[in-house]
């Protein structure tokens, strides 16, 4: 069968299954999650041997060690997948609650009810764990889901897809609620992205190349962020110790995450903080690049930061530092070079903090806190399907609610419009 | 200058102006709305004579009477435009409020702040009033706006654009906060719809042809509905009088609106209601088309409803009636033929009502109320920029809040992630 035809059949099946999962009571959705957990426990051997096949082919293809590591499943990782299913099952049901019911002058009562989105497509790279984690969140929110992992993980993903199917069947839901695309060919992605009549949302997870391609090709709305060029601004009124701790944490707590600081902005009156901070960063192995003013304040900075540095997400132990004249200049730098992800101000001045929180146009804006907190778990969402830097629908870390919509509910007693 | 270059300059100017209106205090945004109101009052003669030019050209082009009427401005309509500006100025400020601030286990406080979307494009047809009404809502929500009306209203719209500009300047905001595209050429629309780097949202207002074209061409998210094929379902447990009143009101209160009922579904046990209902509808001049079962229950129905009727938005005094076996069949009919706009069930059975409210996947779902209530004013939104039948971002009648986004706000006191 042609790939496009096959993908369309899957999408049509997902659309047909979506009212069944949407209207399933939360107990049934949770039972499905727990049945999938059991299926994975029972299928462990098959999953690990399918994964071994992927790893073998990956080594033959010469995938680098980092990729091989992300591709690998092992008992500990499967434990985490199973634990994740139990956690999602334990989350509060986001569906069906009516909120804001108010009586209008006409006498009708108007409120909104939270409902599933419908059908969600997840397009992701090497980590096969995502197959189950993403499916669980989509299903908990009452959606059908189509999962399209990387070709390098095809055997693992198809085996995990079999566990999804058996868990769904055990709980009385159709298999089409969560389907793994069984085709390694890249044409499958293009076919999926055109099916706006069947899918409501696409969530790409992976590197920037994947996300750019998905965003450019998709006829379906995409929930995404491209870059995480996050800033910390040390204000003239910053507490020295908080500034030091937050800058170190935002840069070094993890290097490869999208909420890691990539550029540090420092008010020109506070360059006295730089020597100690730069020494601490360098002691942790961070390569520091500075503008002329920061280099003259901290001669230990031996590398120039050039224009290109301001727009780079290093995802590595590298930091660019720029001295700015005031909070306004810091906000202008962020507007010019940032990626609308996460920015933080360190200051004891409430008025300056309020201005920064209000005027910086990023998905997360912080005061006296490390950018590393920009995360669904840290925000109390219970889980995270991804982070959005777009402004429509969901912005910032996206949990279950971002996988839902709402509709208006009107209650009358024979009311007619005059 | 090339049209595309000109449109891009306008869009870039709007993007540059958007932080200025986003960060303007609400008093300044309201002052701008009232200054525009004053400018329109002062410019009345110029506006009416520009409109006279459009009307003259419209008559020469042979526009039909309905179009000429929608194109026409007169003192009463300008009164309404001025009153509308005052009403929008009086609405609560949707911007800047922080909600849901909660302390997390880490000690940080996390909440969300409502913020403007940025730059909004409005693409509309003949009614020049929309120029001011849409601009007012966008600006109140802190957005810059680009207005592209129909070529037949170009003189009226440009003159109204001059009033917008002078009101903005009087209140200290840049003219680029609200710009009217001064080009009648249709290429201007195509150029605008490609500028996703400058615009955040497109709102098309007009006929289905316009909206389909905008949705197909746009690289920018579009807030829209295509059809309003709205249903009333008279359930087996319906109160006879409520069913009669609601059906009459939903069909006949106005014929040309998107929330008017187009198909009536009746439970097979309640066909005894049809003769009186059909007589009342026919007395009001409604052409009734029925399925075989409804025709046999009400022989006054002389026309067959065929498959094509179920999927037609008449926008006219025509109604299709279908007898169905039960609520499940009614919901299946709605899922197959509806347009996800507004559906209402008439029943005294709370369990059936709850099921209908929960399972019908439309932007408004009603119980014992006329579909004609699906409206921003009736829902207490204060005003309406349009109705969305899509599921992302905003759904149903869209007021000021749909023209905003939110961002996460994090407050710490030197908090770092462990």
Arithmetic mean pLDDT of chain A: 96
Number of strands of chain A: 16
Classify the beta-strand content of chain A into a percent band: 15-25%
Helix content of chain A: 40-55%
List low-pLDDT spans of chain A.
none
Distance between the termini of chain A: 57 Å
Please work out how many helical segments of chain A DSSP would assign: 15
Sketch the major β-sheet of chain A: 7 strands, parallel
Give me the Rg of chain A, rounded.
24 Å
Q: Pair with the most extensive interface? A: A-B, 65 and 65 residues
The backbone outline of chain A, from C-alpha atoms, is globular
Oligomer: homodimer
Strand order of the largest sheet of chain A: 10-9-11-8-7-12-13
Question: Strand pairing plus helix content of chain A: what structural class?
Answer: alpha/beta
Describe this structure in a few short sentences.
The structure is a homodimer of 418-residue chains. The first copy, chain A, is α/β, with parallel strands linked by helices and 418 residues long.
Describe the 3D structure.
Two copies of one chain form a homodimer. Chain A contains 15 helices and 16 strands. By secondary structure, chain A is an alpha/beta fold. In chain A, the strands form four sheets. Chain A has a seven-stranded parallel β-sheet, with helices on both faces. In chain A, strands 5-4-3-6 form a four-stranded parallel β-sheet, sandwiched between helices. At the A-B interface, strand 2, helix 10, helix 15, strand 13 and strand 16 of A face strand 2, helix 10, helix 15, strand 13 and strand 16 of B. Strand 13 of chain A pairs parallel with strand 16 (404-415) of chain B, so a sheet runs across the interface.
